[in-house]
Each structure stands twice: as C-alpha cells, then as structure tokens.
Amino acid sequence: MLEPDNDQVNFFELNQAAMREYFTGMAESPFRAAQIMKWMYHSGVTNVDGMTNLSKVLRQQLKQTIRFDLPEIVTEQISTDGTIKWLLRVDDRNCIESVFIPEPDRGTLCISSQVGCALDCSFCATGKQGFNRNLSVAEIIGQLWLANQRLGYFEGERRRIITNVVMMGMGEPLLNFDNVLAAIELMTDDLGFNLARKRVTLSTSGVVPGIYKLAAASNISLAISLHAPTDALRDILVPINRKYPIRELMAACKNYAEQHRGDSITFEYVMLQDVNDSAEMARQLCACLRGIPAKINLIPFNPFPGSGYTRPAMVTIDRFRDILIDAGYITITRKTRGDDIDAACGQLVGQVLPRAQRLQKQLLENRV
Ligand code: SAH
Ligand code: SF4
Known about the structure:
Layout: E1 9-10, H1 16-25, H2 31-43, H3 56-65, E2 66-67, E3 72-78, E4 84-89, E5 95-103, E6 106-110, E7 114-116, H4 125-128, E8 131-134, H5 137-150, E9 164-167, H6 177-188, E10 200-204, H7 208-217, E11 221-225, H8 231-237, H9 246-259, E12 265-271, H10 279-289, E13 294-300, H11 314-326, E14 330-333, H12 355-364
Parallel strand pairs: 1-2, 6-9, 9-10, 10-11, 11-12, 12-13, 13-14
Antiparallel strand pairs: 3-4, 4-5, 5-6, 7-8
Helix pairs in contact: 1-2, 5-6, 7-9, 10-11
The chain binds S-adenosyl-L-homocysteine (SAH) and iron/sulfur cluster.
The site of iron/sulfur cluster has 11 residues, from helix 4.
C-alpha cells in the first residue's frame, strides 16, 4: 500500500526523465534508470535485491532511499463474459477500480485517474459519490502494472494480454494533468510498458484548456464525452459545459486533430431514453461534429440506483446509429461488458470518502 509519509522515493512515481535525474543527482550514471525500469516494467521485479545487474554497494544504498509502492488488490471479480474488475486500495480510506475487458482481437484495461470525480455528470455513478483526491503517478501506472501481473505478463515471454489502455474509469483525467501525463509516458515508453500511443486513449468530459495542453504534450488517442448536441441539454447532463460550451470544445478538438495529422477523435454519447435519443438529436449531433474527423461511440446507459434515467430500447439506439452512419460517421454501439459485476461504463465507484465527509470525520476524530 502507498505510504505518503515515508521519506523514501517511490520509484513508481517517476517517469524515465525523472528517474534519470534522480541518478544524476546522486552522481550515478543516468543509465541506471534504464536498468531499473527494465526490472520494474519488463520483469515485474519490485525489490532492489532482485535487481542483480546493479552492484551490491549501489543496491545497499538504494535500499535506504527508494521504495516500490503500489496500490493493494482488495478484490478481484470475474464476470461471466470474462471481464475482470479489481478493487484497489490506495490509502486507508479510499479504493479505486480498474477493469479488464477481453475481446477476440484485443484486451483493454480501463483505468481510473482520480478518487471519485468532482464534475457531477447527472448520469454517472462516479460523479454521484463526490471527489476525494487525485491519484498519484504510482497509483495510475500501478493499475496497469498490477493488471499485467495478474494476467501473467511478467512471466516468460511478456505475452501482451493488455493491448489497449483507456482512461475511462473513475475521475476526470485532464483535471489531474501532470500525474496522468507522467503515467502515460510510462505506458508508452519502451522501457516502460511500450504500448503504441494510439492504443492509449484519454477520455474527457470536455476540460478545454487540458485538451490544448494534451495536444502539445502527447499524441495519444482522444475521446470526448459529448452526450448532447446542444448547450441547453449538455449544460444539464455534463455541467462542465457551462464553463466550456460546445463551440469552445469543438475548437479544441479541431486543434487536437490538426496537431495529430487528422487522426479521428472518438465522441462518446450515452443513450438516455427520451432525453437525448431522438432522431432530431441525431441530426443535431451530425451538425455539431461537422468539420471534425470523428468516430462516434454510442453507450447504452448503464443504470444504477436512483439515477432517474433509463436505457432506450435497442430499436431506438439502432435508429439513432443509422442516422449517424448515413451521414458518414463511423458509429458503433458499445457493448455492455461486465454488468453482472458492476464493471460497465459509469458504474465504477470504488470506495470513496468525499472530501466534505472526510473532513467531517477527521473533525469528529479530532484529527484537524
Ligand atoms: N471523466 C471522463 C472519463 C471517465 S467516464 C469522462 O467523463 O470522459 C467514461 C465514460 O463513461 C464517459 O463517456 C462517461 O460519460 C460514460 N458514463 C458515465 N456514466 C455512465 C453510465 N451510467 N452509463 C453509460 N456510460 C456512462
Ligand atoms: Fe466525472 Fe466522467 Fe463521471 Fe462526468 S462522466 S462525473 S467527468 S467520471
């Protein structure tokens, strides 16, 4: 488990540049970073004694100053369709969730970026539970490390079972920009997990300044949680729209696509019965996306207690999809996976003590 009070440096917090700097700072060759990263991310070794190509003296020294802390797996649930959900403890009060979704041609890991979420989209279970804190780099990359370990990646030939990573778990990744970016670097670094950049997708509800920052810093795939084609409706479903309305969001998307040779952006659209599922809305959606290289993912709403929304009938979703396809957009309806273990989109809740509640608890316990 992560121990924030410990003075030692947690090496899972460092991307390659930071690790090289660490060694330069102790008058060692920066090449040590490459040696250690290979142990950590290629061989799954997380103790200094196991890093046998380092001198005994250096190992002795590092044992005093560094540590390799990861979240702790609390439960592992396996769905009848093969989806696996892990509940991971990140501190003594909070747990997050990650989900592995196997498909015939790929294996996708859905990871979290924050404990809870502050943005409170009206149809999202994560949003309903409030926000506690950002995840650290170690807590983000740790989700991929632990899933790989559980799936046997470090054994033998490093057979890649996780081929894609999507930041579509708990939290808004662009509101935890620096840690998310460092973790993305570790995912795509050849000394890290060496995933192709296009196979790493960040999903955002539309934090416009973050989209510009990401465009300048990385060329991973981008997904936008659009969910409504008009500001009037999006203001209600995705409240951050009141700050960054659709016109500004689309300008940021256009810039992102232009920075990345016109690669398409995925637009996610949760289908809510009688709210955003009409034929008229489908036509408005086409108009809204005009000029942007776009793919559309329709996500049938995944219910949770007290949400107040229902999933439209399949015929309604198909009619909506066909209008988009006829307008020339590649559109898929996302299959619901792992719903028997509450692992589907928007159902990830972990165990979050929202900040207000946490402060109250600390006050009661006389800790502040
Ligand atoms: N905060 C980021 C990433 C996490 S949410 C974002 O909003 O993009 C991942 C996706 O699941 C988003 O598109 C989100 O809108 C969608 N989602 C949330 N709740 C859902 C629900 N109950 N049913 C279906 N999709 C949902
Ligand atoms: Fe947060 Fe995304 Fe859920 Fe909205 S949909 S509350 S941004 S996690």
